[in-house]
Amino acid sequence: MSTRRLPLAAEEPSRPVASAAPVAAAAASSAKDGLKEGDLLQVGDLAKATGKTVRAIHLYEELGLLRAHERSKGRYRLFMSDALIRVRWISKLQNLGLSLSEIQELVREQDGSDSATVAAQKLREAYVARLGETRRKLEELRELEAELEQSLAYLSACDSACESQLPVHSCPSCERHPEREHAPELVTAVHVV
Length: 193
Hints:
Layout: H1 22-32, E1 40-42, H2 43-50, H3 54-62, E2 70-71, E3 77-80, H4 83-95, H5 100-111, H6 116-161, H7 185-188
Antiparallel strand pairs: 1-3, 2-3
Helix pairs in contact: 2-3, 5-6
């Protein structure tokens, strides 16, 4: 096994891996990041490759979410290339709204499962719950998007309909928008005290 330093992120961007097979995903990820199987990463290289800080990598270790493969002669932590996938997985779960302690619990459940079937079922349950929450959040974002579009359309009409001498406090009750009875909340709320 050799220790290898990765190119800087600006030279070669890291890309997330979407694969169901962990071994294949580790190999694909390593290849994309310019690593050969068996290469070891120093903590700084792992941090750069995943967009995390060295402190975050150390925290993941402290919480038992990540393990260094070995230490170098200089006592540096060395990680296998599949640590890239593990850190990206942690990041994805955080982006889905899980806290590090929830991720820790998920890892404990996986490690403590009696069988692969039980482990898969627990993981499936966690992912199903997150999928429902993600869909609710997407719906909220779609509603916000529509409200932003309406507000921008309303404000765009102000360029041609509004007179420069009108005071700002008249905006919420503007009569220069005949197509709408009321201004969108994102416009009127600015003037509410």
